[in-house]
Structures are given as C-alpha cells and as structure tokens.
Write a structure and sequence with these properties.
This protein starts with a helix and ends with a strand. It is mainly β. It has one domain: monomeric porin ompg (Porin), CATH 2.40.160. The strands form two sheets. The chain has a 14-stranded antiparallel beta barrel with strand order 1-2-3-4-5-6-7-10-11-12-13-14-15-16. A two-stranded antiparallel sheet has the order 8-9. Helix content is about 10%, strand content about 60%.
C-alpha cells in the first residue's frame, strides 16, 4: 500500500493535473499528449473549440493504465452529437483511481462555428473527489473554454483554458483545481502526414512543450510518435480504421516510472 500511495503522489506531482487532466484518448497520448486541433470525438474534452468542428456524431471509449498500476487506471466515455445548424452537443465522463482515492468528472459541452473557419466552445465540468471512507468526498464544478481556427488547408490553431473559474477545493492554503492554459498548432504536410506542437502552462508549474507526428501509410493503418518536456516522456502508438470504427493504442514512457499504456475505440455514425 505504501508503494501505491508513493506512486500516486508522484503521479500527481509530475503531471500537476489532479482533477483536471490535459487530454483523454489513446490517439492524443500517442501524439505526446497533444490534441487541441484534433476534431475527433475526444475533442469533447480535449478542446471544446475543435469540438465545434466535429463533422459526424460519434462515441468513444478509452482506458489508460498509468505506470502499469491498476490503482492509477483511468476510464473515459465521450459522446458528440453533430447538427448542421445548431452546433455540436457533447457529454463526457471519466474516472481515475481506486477505492482509497478516486476522481470522477462529467462534462456538458457545446461547440459551434462562429465565423468562417473559426470555431468556439465551452464546457461545464462536474468534479467529485473521494478520499476513502474516513475523509469523505468533495463535489465541485469548473468551466473550460476553447477556440479552433483553420487558418489554411495546411495550418490549424487551437487554444484552451481549463478551470477558467479558478474553482476552490479547500480554504486550507487556498487549494484549487489547476487552471491550465494551452495553445497549439497543426501543420498538415499531406493527406498522410501531419505534425502537432503545443505548449501548456498551469499557474504553478513550468511550461510543458508537447509534439506529435501522425503518418497514414495504409488505408486502415495510422502510426504515431510523440514527446513532451514536463515531465519528459516519449510516446508511440497506432490506429486501425475499419469504415466508421477505429481502434487506437498507445504507450507513453517515463524514464523513472515506466510505461503508461492506453487503448480506445471510436465509432462515427453516418
């Protein structure tokens, strides 16, 4: 048990994202944790702005196992409903941890086109933090804003602010949910290759620079590589697409804590 709590403390310290995660989805993980400009179903969480550019109704399920410890596993469900005139409506749910420490988050999300090639969105997030049977639980809420801009056919930009409300968790030492600012860009070399680069910053932690490359060598196969700077982690993964169904798998590697595998399924409705 001491080892589990030790790794849990390390996890919280290294990623600096307890109760507010940077992104979800195996595809994003394989790309070094980038995802601000990806408008797949996981944009319902990763960036409400790019969620506004979602073109088809879709659902996604994802599982992540941090450092191969089941006590640090995360499960996520994302659903995005596309409309032609009224924008996109989404929900997402995720949970992380085990019986002695569990975090849960649910979100209601809306995104739409604001101007030509420019999209915006917002999310209302509901958080629950549960500390075993003795310390009880805490329920609270936060807000997320996002923007997405398709500048050209080859260049896209994304911006997101998580916990814009600066939600307080405890009066003791003014403990709050982390507020995270992120900006990113995608350069599309061709229909088969694109490159992501992002920078994100919390109020108390250094800038984390992230980058990822996706290659589409075959009709059904996607290959991905990624890296981020704080903490330094490398990542790789692949995707298999069969008509409207896609399976993604990835692994992030931390030099001290080891591997964090992730797998997910996405389905797009016609």
């Amino acid at each position: 048990m001491k080892n589990i709590l030790f790794f849990l403390a390390l996890f919280t310290t290294f990623v600096g994202s307890a109760q507010v995660y940077p992104q979800i989805g195996a595809r994003s993980a394989a790309l070094g944790g980038t995802g601000l400009t990806l408008n797949d179903v996981y944009s319902v969480y990763n960036n409400p702005g790019s969620f506004g550019a979602l073109e088809k109704t879709a659902i996604g399920l994802n599982y992540e196992n941090r450092f191969l410890l089941k006590e640090l596993s995360s499960q996520a469900l994302a659903f995005g409903y596309h409309t032609e005139k009224s924008g996109n409506f989404g929900v997402q749910f995720q949970q992380h941890g085990f019986s002695l420490y569990r975090e849960m988050q649910a979100s209601l999300v809306y995104g739409r086109q604001l101007f030509r090639n420019f999209y915006g969105g917002f999310a209302v997030n509901f958080h629950r933090i549960q500390l075993g049977d003795i310390y009880g639980s805490k329920n609270t809420a936060s807000g997320t804003l996002g923007l997405f801009y398709a500048a050209t056919d080859a260049l896209n930009f994304g911006v997101r602010v998580q916990n814009i409300s600066r939600t307080e968790l405890s009066e003791f030492e003014d403990e709050r949910l982390p507020t995270r600012f992120a900006i990113g860009a995608t350069y599309i070399f061709s229909e088969k290759v694109f490159w992501n680069v992002e920078a994100e910053k919390t109020i108390i932690h250094p800038i984390n620079v992230k980058s990822g490359l996706e290659i589409h060598p075959h009709e059904i196969l996607y290959l991905r590589l990624g890296v981020n700077s704080y903490p330094f982690q490398s990542a790789f993964g692949f995707g298999l697409a069969f008509s409207n169904l896609q399976f993604d798998m990835s692994t992030m590697w931390h030099s001290n804590l080891g591997l964090s595998p992730s797998a997910g399924l996405k389905y797009r409705f016609n």
